TrEMBL record:
Keywords: Isomerase. Pathway: Carbohydrate degradation; pentose phosphate pathway; D-ribose 5-phosphate from D-ribulose 5-phosphate (non-oxidative stage): step 1/1. Belongs to the ribose 5-phosphate isomerase family. This is Ribose-5-phosphate isomerase A. The active site is at residue 113. GO terms for molecular function: ribose-5-phosphate isomerase activity. It comes from the Bacteria. It comes from Acetobacter pomorum. InterPro entries: NagB/RpiA_transferase-like, Ribose-5P_isomerase, Ribose5P_isomerase_typA_subgr, Ribose5P_isomerase_type_A. CDD domains: RPI_A. Catalyzes the reversible conversion of ribose-5-phosphate to ribulose 5-phosphate. Its EC number is 5.3.1.6. It catalyses: aldehydo-D-ribose 5-phosphate = D-ribulose 5-phosphate. GO terms for biological process: pentose-phosphate shunt, non-oxidative branch.
Length: 237
């Protein structure tokens, strides 16, 4: 069994991840998320494959997750062979508790993550309890993936929508590149009152590939904190 991390936040993430991984049943096709919480899901599924004989097929949401899945012994597949997934489990950077709308992409994998989530019958989000916010944008920027050519103009157009835009860079000041060799613009909008409207406006900008707003996609969230594990589903208006 995976050792409990010494960091309390990491321990909460692991608790939520193990709970979410228990939803995976024999024979399922599974989307594997990317990030600090999703890696615990991959580790737990790998343990179940090795120790329990769990039979699954998985599609990873990044090259990092693909590497971990192979190391864990999880069989991988492609959308060519598996066009629909039974379940996808991934983390989130912010979660609105009422709607389960999300911001994702601080890990740089938002495009593959959204493709995988949209192909899943169930999209389950795991996180520690600190990720809950009243409105998206309250704590973190919105990542927007753009093609490299003309990124400066795309950044200006994002600025006209009200964002403070910062191109994501590596520690050596080079541009961060996604698995598709695109750039990420980290956009600070502040609390979003109309995320659907904003999402549509962003996608109308030529050069934008995708944004990190995951709206009306999650069927449940599983979070852990000092009060224990909490499971939420979207509230009906």
């Amino acid at each position: 069994m995976t050792a409990t991390p010494p960091d309390p936040a990491a321990a909460f993430k692991q608790q939520a991840a193990i709970k979410a991984a228990s939803l995976v049943q024999d024979g399922m096709a599974v989307g594997l998320g990317t990030g600090s919480t999703a890696k615990f899901v991959v580790a737990e599924l790998g343990r179940r494959v090795r120790e329990e004989g769990l039979h699954i097929r998985a599609i990873p949401t990044s090259s990092v997750t693909e590497k971990q899945a192979r190391e864990e012994g999880i069989p991988l597949t492609t959308f060519g062979a598996q066009p629909e997934l039974d379940i996808a489990i991934d983390g989130a950077d912010e979660i609105e508790p009422r709607t389960l709308n999300l911001i994702k992409g601080l890990g740089g994998a938002l495009l593959w993550e959204k493709i995988v989530a949209s192909a899943a019958k169930q999209f389950v989000v795991v996180a520690d309890a600190s990720k809950y916010v009243d409105h998206l944008g309250a704590k973190c920027p919105l990542p927007v993936e753009v093609i490299p050519f003309g990124w400066e103009n795309v950044a200006r157009q994002l600025g006209k929508l009200g964002a403070h835009v910062t191109p994501r860079r590596n520690r050596d000041a080079s541009f961060y590149l996604t698995d598709e060799k695109n750039l990420i613009m980290d956009c600070v909008f502040g609390p979003m009152m109309e995320p659907e409207k904003l999402g549509r406006a962003i996608l109308e900008i030529v050069g934008v590939v995708e944004h990190g707003l995951f709206l009306h996609m999650a069927c449940q969230t599983i979070t852990a904190g000092p009060e224990g594990i909490r499971t939420l589903t979207p509230q009906q208006d």
